[in-house]
Fold this protein.
Amino acid sequence: MPKRTVSKAEKHEASPSQLIDARIGKLNDWRGATLARVRRLIMEADPDIVEEVKWRKPSNGMLGVPVWERDGIICTGETYRDKVKLTFAKGAALRDPSGLFNSSLDGNVRRAIDLYEGDTVDAAALKALVRAAVALNTSSRSGRASARTAPPGKRTKRG
């Protein structure tokens, strides 16, 4: 099979980590510092988390939205004029004993943490929440795999 030719644009495409660095640098204010801090905490919580950038469009300067994944989306990090929002994709299914979730509380799936200027981040609580999200994603993934690999008539039930 012949090798795929890589275009100049693909060779020079920034990695997701570089794009997130660029977004943080472009903010150049408390939002950049906050996003950098939560990013570090997320990555410290689980070394197998992968950074991605999704939803690149003109309205966000083509920098996209930082996304942290492991066997599915864990959370996104969006920046607004007055806040940094961490949205946990399956937040409604997570226990939050520290009460970090303070936004999107009415939904059936997502939960979010809105961080405003001057807010402090409870590092231990955020890491625990990220680890719980990873555990949920990895358990969901193994449940889907067993349902696919079970013989017909022996499929596992989903609740």
User: Anything to note?
Assistant: The beta strands are 50-54, 65-69, 73-79, 84-88, 111-115.
